[in-house]
Amino acid sequence: MNKLPNQDLSVMKCPRTLEDVDLFSPGAQEHWYDAYPILHAESPVVRLPGEGLFPGSDAYILTKYADIARVVKDWERYPPTLSLFVEQAADVDENDPGALVNAMQISIRTLRPNPEMWRAHRQELTDPWVGPGAVRHTEMITKLVDDLIDKWIDRGEVEFIHEFARPLPQMVMANVLGFPLEDLEQQAKWGNAQVKSFVYGRGHNNKLTQEEMEEQFAILAGFNEYVLDKVKERRKNPKEDMITFLTDVTYSPLDRKLTDMEIVGVVYAMVIGGLETTQYALEEQAQLLCENPDTWDALKADRSKLRHFTEEGMRLRSPTQGLSTRLTSQDEDFQGVTVPKGSLLHLRWAAGNVDPEEWGECPMEIDLNRKGVARHLTFSQGPRVCPGAGISRLEQMIAWQRLFERLDKIEYGDGNTFLHQPGIMLGTFNLHLKFQKAV
Ligand code: HEM
Question: Closest ligand 1 atom, CA of 80?
Answer without folding.
Answer: 15
